[in-house]
Amino acid sequence: MVEIKRLTRYYGKHPAIRDLSFEIRDNEILGFLGPNGAGKSTTMNIIAGYLPSTSGTVTVNGFDITEQAAEAKQCIGYLPEIPPVYPDMRVEEYLRFVAGIKGVKRSEIPAQIEQAMERLNITDMRKRLIRSLSKGYKQRVGFAQALLGDPKLLILDEPTVGLDPAQVSEVRALIRDLGKDHSVIFSSHILAEISAVCNRVVIINKGEILAEDTISHLEETMTANKQLRLTVAGEKDKIIRILKDVRGVKSVSDIQDMGENRFQCVAVLESDNVRNEIMSVLLANDCSIVEMSMAKLTLEEVFLKITQQGKKRSGIEALLEETPEQPAES
Q1: What is the DSSP string of 15-52?
Q2: Do residues 142 and 79 lie in contact, with contact meaning Cβ atoms separated by under 8 Å?
Q3: Could you identify which of 119, 157, 286, 307 might form a hypothetical disulfide with 205, taking C-beta atoms 3.0 to 4.6 angstroms apart as the criterion?
């Protein structure tokens, strides 16, 4: 559906994005995740044809966004972070205006407006001035204008910013529903938003892609490296030495807690063998296990590790090899 190849954009001598390449498939909801200032909005504006790139190409449904701009833009519905609404227009009036700009056939405009308003649950607001609407309803009007013309691609830039929890839930449900009939690229700096609605995620920071993977594979990979929390009765140095010698234990760190000897182990746990061996070795050396619990890296910890490490990877396995600086909760 959409192919982005080696996309680069400079502002003066400063590169906002550098050499971005990824694709958006048919009827896929792609998450575009990164901290504020990572280059998400710049990328969205280039894909939408609102901003030229310094180099690289964007192809939408077979049309180059630069060379065949009119044809490409007919395939795109765009909702910027700030909805492009006119406060002194009424909702229906504004949608009719946008439909005309998009080149929707005059005979089809009434039906498309009704369909968009119904889908966004704003039919009762049709005669209201946009300036009098709440932020949530203004966002719905912005969604409605993006749907006019029945575009194949929807570009949603931070669509839940500033909404209350109930409105966020509604937007998530709407995006999931839109993904049945459209390809969607959804940018956010909030990991929970991406994981709630997206099939696949591209992680960007400082203008570069750091990782690209499916949400399910992120979660599956996280189960490969788990952390064991141990409270052990015995001499601390001796316990650490014993744990480090167990095959499969990648690192051991000491956790100070109420005078007890507590430890954090990062191990590859493909089976129960590592846990069983830890228990056997400690008991054989007269070290009693008071408590053992297990945790895995959260999505938030993976995201922080990727963005802090700042190295481009095709997957995330290598990014999970090191011990997290902060212990995970069990």
Answers
A1: EEEEEEEEEE-TT-EEEEE--TTSSHHHHHHHHHTSS-
A2: yes
A3: 307
Give the residue from 27, 33, 2 showing the smallest Cα distance to 175.
27
Separation of alpha carbons 107 and 109, rounded Å: 6
Question: Is residue 15 a part of any domain in this protein?
Answer: yes
Asked, for residue 228, whether it belongs to a domain, the answer is yes
Find the helix or strand (DSSP H, E) in which 77 lies. Answer: strand 76-79
Average pLDDT over residues 7-11: 96
- The DSSP code sequence of 244-303 is HTSTTEEEEEEEEETTEEEEEEEEE-SSSHHHHHHHHHHHHTT-EEEEEEEEE--HHHHH
pLDDT interval class at 152 (50, 70, 90): very high
How many CB atoms within 10 Å of residue 103?
Answer: 10
| Overall average pLDDT of the 10-34 stretch | 94
Q: Which domain holds residue 65?
A: 2-219
In a domain, 301, yes or no: no
**Range with lowest mean pLDDT among 47-56, 85-94, 105-114, 206-215:** 206-215
The domain spanning residue 285 has which CATH number? 3.30.70.100
Q: What is the pLDDT of residues 77-99, one digit of tens each?
A: 999 988 999 999 999 999 999 99
Q: How many residues can be counted in the chain?
A: 330
User: How many domains, the chain?
Assistant: 2
Q: How far is CA 44 from the centre of its chain?
A: 14
Q: Assess whether 145 and 97 both reside in one domain.
A: yes
With 0-12 CB in 10 A as exposed, 13-18 as middle and 19+ as buried, what is 292? middle
Burial class from Cβ neighbours inside 10 Å (0-12, 13-18, 19+) for residue 258 reads exposed
Last residue of a domain, one of 193, 219, 245: 219
